[in-house]
Amino acid sequence: MLPDRCSVKHSGKDCVNPPEFVIEIIHENDSFMVGITCNKHKNIISEKIIELQSKGKIPKGKLQFEKLKSVGTDCVRIDSDELIQLD
Predict the structure, then answer these.
(1) Region of 52 on the Ramachandran plot (φ > 0 left; ψ -120 to 50 alpha; else beta)
(2) Residue-by-residue pLDDT tens, the chain, 87 positions
(3) Under the phi-then-psi rule, with left for phi > 0, alpha for psi from -120 to 50, and beta for the rest, what region is 36?
(4) Residue 81 located in a structural domain
(5) Residue 23: what are its φ and ψ, rounded to 5°?
(6) Pick from 13, 2, 23: which is nearest to 82 by CA?
């Protein structure tokens, strides 16, 4: 399960937008999920990750934004009131 909001905090406030992308770092043969973001904060989070990579705090590698997709199955039951709109 993913959070129902973007994981960015800006000016001390949580973003209220739904997540649109999973943020991954591709390093050699490994892929690391580092967060989720909305389209509005995609550039801000890119800059922050590049900064953290240059300081050696997270692995260097290619930054990739994977578009979230809604998936439903027979074994996963969802309350329709909990769904969020994805473009």
Answers:
(1) alpha
(2) 677 888 888 788 888 898 999 999 998 888 888 889 999 999 988 999 999 999 999 888 999 999 987 666 666 666 666 666 655
(3) beta
(4) no
(5) -100, 125
(6) 2
59 in any annotated domain: yes
For residue 72, the 8-state DSSP code is: -
Look at residue 52 and give its three-state secondary structure. helix
Q: Identify residue 25 by its one-letter amino acid code.
A: I
Q: If you search the block for the tokens 């969020």, which residue do you land on?
A: 84
By residue range, what is the domain housing residue 26?
A: 9-71
pTM for the model stands at 0.69
Q: Which residue has the tokens 């800006």?
A: 10
